[in-house]
Amino acid sequence: xxxxxxxxxxxxxxxxxxxxxxxxxxxxxxxxxxxxxxxxxxxxxxxxxxxxxxxxxxxxxxxxxxxxxxxxxxxxxxxxxxxxxxxxxxxxxxxxxxxxxxxxxxxxxxxxxxxxxxxxxxxxxxxxxxxxxxxxxxxxxxxxxxxxxxxxxxxxxxxxxxxxxxxxxxxxxxxxxxxxxxxxxxxxxxxxxxxxxxxxxxxxxxxxxxxxxxxxxxxxxxxxxxxxxxxxxxxxxxxxxxxxxxxxxxxxxxxxxxxxxxxxxxxxxxxxxxxxxxxxxxxxxxxxxxxxxxxxxxxxxxxxxxxxxxxxxxxx
Length: 316
Ligand code: TXA
Ligand code: MG
Fold this sequence. Notes:
single chain, ten-stranded mixed β-sheet, four-stranded parallel β-sheet
């Protein structure tokens, strides 16, 4: 069921459902999350079931403040600095789990680390405070599909698997949080996202390459965020029947339909539009989705990361 957050009692009801072990989808500034009580193995297992994820992979645990995060994970000095600068906001920090944190082991998929995030969205903040428990929340899409930036996307993908969907309109950032591994000597980028690499290196110095020994998770597989149609990158000319995601003032002619990620070449606007426009073009009337070149800096890194996964050869 979709509930507008303007409906009286919607947030109180959502908090009560989460405390009772049920799943609630809610808006964050990045994408809609599929939330479950992170201290309940059963609720976390239900998240994997609802997403139809083929494997368990570690989830991001959401809390309302840095103080709450410190109850769950052990912060190094650089981790605290990153949190002080970018929380609340689209950054997830992978840290050692604090012994006795009460977190479900499944939330970490058996690792001795946990990814924590303090979201900035006011509805997410209120929900977390009302719930009074850490909330594990992957993006609220079926496994392998495009992340939801609107409540209707969640309903399409998850339907009855979720007790309640809190609707507060489209999300503002539009791509997921940046995931930073803070468990080693140098911070390493695990997933580009809403906080740019430039912003992070300015605060923390150069980032390291991810640990090659880290278990591969679906979120990091090459083919992910896959629309049903084939996706073609760096398009400079049309092919018959293709739709186009355009960037910048001029689009090549001849496409069956054109949606502009950003006419002015604004990467933040493009990120916010990316997933909903991919969904809108992913229709059998077209034979493919072509995308113009997106510059590889700032949020462009995260956009290109998602686009390359959308364009990668499909895994059976
Ligand atoms: O913006 C976001 O981060 C959204 C909203 C709802 O907050 N959440 C999200 O969660 O994107 P999810 O589960 O779709 O992505 C979690 C990512 C995955 O790439 C996962 O492998 C990585 O974080 N991750 C989580 N815990 C980890 C850990 N302990 N070690 C390494 N990677 C981890
Ligand atoms: Mg996801």
